[in-house]
Amino acid sequence: MSESQEKASQQDPSVSPFKLVVIDGSGFIFRAYHALPFMSGPEGVPVNAVYGFTNMLARFLKERIGTHLAVIFDAGRQTFRNKIYPQYKAHRPDVPEDLIPQFALIREATAAFGIPAIEKEGWEADDLIAAYAKKAVAAGGRCIIVSSDKDLMQLVNASVSMFDPIKSRTIGIEEVKERFGVEPGKVIEVQALMGDSVDNVPGVPGIGPKTATQLIQEYGSLEEVLAAIPQMKPSKRRENLENNREAARISLQLVKLDDEAPCPLPLKSLSFQDPNPQQLEEWLQKMQFRSILQRLNLSENSVKNKEAGEDINSSQGGGGASSSSQFGRQQDAQEQEEAEPFWKTSPYYSDYEGVTTEKQLDQWVNLITQQGYFALDTETTGLNPLEDTLVGISLAVTPGQACYIPLQHKAAATVSVDLLGHSQASSPENDLSISRHDEKIFPQLPLAVVIEKLSPLLAAPAILKIFQNAKFDMEVLHNAGFPVITPIEDTMLISYVLSAGKHGNGMDELSLLYLGHAPIPYDEVTGTGRKRISFAEVPIEKATRYAAEDADVTLRLWLALKPRLLKEKLLGVYEGYERPLIAILAAMEEAGIKIDAMELKAVSKDFAQRMAVMEEGIHHLAGRSFNLASPKQLGEILYDEMGIPGGKKTKSGTWSTDASTLQTLAEQGYDLPVRIVEWRQLAKLKSTYADALIEQVNAKTGRVHTSFQMTVTSTGRLSSNDPNLQNIPIRNEEGIKIRKAFIANPGYRLLSADYSQIELRLLAHVANIPALKEAFVLGQDIHARTASEVFGVPVEGIDPLIRRKAKAINFGIIYGISAFGLSRQLGISPKEAKEYIEIYFARYPEIYNYMETTKAYAKKHGYVQTPFGRRLWINGIGEKNSARRGYAERQAINAPLQGGAADIIKRAMVLLDHEMNAWKAHAKLLLQVHDELVFEVEEKEVEAFSQWVKTVMEQAAQISVPLVVDTGYACNWADAH
């Protein structure tokens, strides 16, 4: 500050030029809260918003951008606007619990810096800011408003500007015009028409930002728009304007700031004063904001013990999951859902914008930058993110405010000339047309330009990106040239964490369920069957309506679903290991795994030869040749010709020959069904793996790239497809042959790390079974120990047959096995099996109690929980039909165990990924198959890396029995076991 400025700051502002800086304290608190990771102070109190606020004040103290300074806060929710419109901000929920204690600390910070804090009951902070800005200009000075709140943009003029402290961006007249399309003085006219879903300003239904701007540009003001209604063409828009005149006028009163609001302190009392150094230092030390102390050079002693890069302690979330960034929380007005939430009822799903110019794109980038979060979606030529082409990107910033950026639409770059010589945009309906290329028709932005404009947003740590099925979109964008995207949210994954097993998690289903809205079907824009066209051929106008709606729905779903995670105590599951897995699985899919095509061809040939021999033997048993793959012919052989009793017919009138039926016949001693089952299993392995895997090798990488599905199973387990690598048999000869074809690169090894008997360990833990817990702690053979306990025989030298029975009961109990099921498995009578189970429960009554308690809990609540808090919904648990109810009860018994195992390996994957960089090994995680992880590791590092992986995995969760991980490595997957 110059000497003249210093003097001016001490004089009466009414007679001297000066610059007033007013900080929107309330607005900044919420932005800092969402923009910074969760932090805790020395007493465990959350302080992320306090830290962000203090950092900003420290900046103003050092830079002194004004001669006068004040922080303005909201004094309460009730203001004069509630008298005008009682519903104003009525839907706003309670303040987030971890923000409440930060308000007092923020006021302490303001006092420590010696800055006036201003608030007034009955008035919003924005009104006080407007009043002070007016007084500053009237006194011959200038005013800088520290905020990015769109509601304050109406105040901008030649003497009043805004400054976004998080983005370090000045907002002047031109920036406001870019945002609203009108001069700052007309902003309230636009806002009155479009309304504001955050503050519950009604506006006119069906009129979004684009239409509102067009109307004000054309007519000049709200009243002039309303006066022109009779001259407008009949339309839904005209009808809405006519029916909502008063709502628009009320909206104008609500959005207009009162610059005549009372000013509690005179301007001259706001002159910039240096804080008391001792007072400020003591407060910063109390909060342990060491880097701010250092930056302000307040004390040498206070920074001697500063840990590099650390200001305060990061908190750990519940259940052992580390706390992650709080970007996932939307702003205060969006934290909870009401009976009729604003994202469900207003505004309409329409009026989306097609972005085809750089100016348009810049406007959306600015809008997103100011807001700090947005939803996005991609459109592609197919469903393979590693191979298909990106066609366009859609963005949404508020409900109803969305756009589509077409990138590679063929129809958009074509002009058709019909048989009469008239020029028209081509479309699938223009069958009788001659097409020629013309880039001037429906122009599209070059991909390189869009990458340049959007990349800073996608990589910015302070801007949240919201997806529906994030992994797919992130892979598509990455392969198109965009950077790594962070931080992210995934509405599909949020829904899965909340409702696994209860319903599907696709966008259309969720939209109907939570928003009451049916999105435009994909078939409606691309057609069906032989008439289906690629999305790249969909006309841009139609593509815009479809694609922008997807982003809009995604944003609304996030607003509806994300707050429930905290309320239902599932935030730790989602943020601890489900959301972090998105990037981990995407990297695994991109890495793929190498296949030995020659080995697979040899396996396929071997299987074919064995099948031919088996087929000859089956035909001999049947007494004639027939098509083994034909259920109809097989049924005729079994029941009509061989006369086997007990057959059942399907609805189509043919005999049932499914796997269950054939297994029952096999257990009754019929040889032919046994042979058929074996032949079918071999045929499936041949077609699914030995033959298909060769076709699925990526031509560029020479590897197969499976797709991991995160939201398919009801237990939390991952599944995979294209190809499905979860169902390759582990222990039989055929499965081993197939696994031998999965190989490592030269100089590398495949490392397998597999949790040992993890579900039995979880059973011992959750059912609290002393005998089994002791066996696991001592490292005993659990099946031998069970046989000894149940059948009263010594563990040493135990009969393998008795051990086999104990093993069948151990694993059967996990899946709620019945006496009939156990009898079939062991080849004994149901009565004998029933006796075994009764003996088992008598020896381990804790298991029986667990089963009954779990079933009762499921019937009462509709779901069960894993030991780590994951919620698993059990459909059919209240069924009257005993068969369906019994199946649901068996699911309820097993779900906490299988789901708990899924939780553990997911936690392990996150821990391994987090520490992999520190290890600096030449290694990649390639596959997760149930309880097993498969890595590709450089040969010289594999032994040490194997031990490290084992240690990390065994420490992924703490339960009352030890977790044990078996590891092995070799040149191929089979030999690594």
Automatic annotation (TrEMBL):
Top EC class, one word: transferase
Reaction catalysis annotation: DNA(n) + a 2'-deoxyribonucleoside 5'-triphosphate = DNA(n+1) + diphosphate
Skewed-composition ranges (Low complexity): 322-333
Region (Disordered): 303-343
Keyword Transit peptide part of the UniProt annotation: no
MF terms in GO: 3'-5' exonuclease activity; 5'-3' exonuclease activity; DNA binding; DNA-directed DNA polymerase activity
Record-stated family: Belongs to the DNA polymerase type-A family.
Subunit text: Single-chain monomer with multiple functions.
Task of the protein: In addition to polymerase activity, this DNA polymerase exhibits 3'-5' and 5'-3' exonuclease activity.
Record protein name field: DNA polymerase I
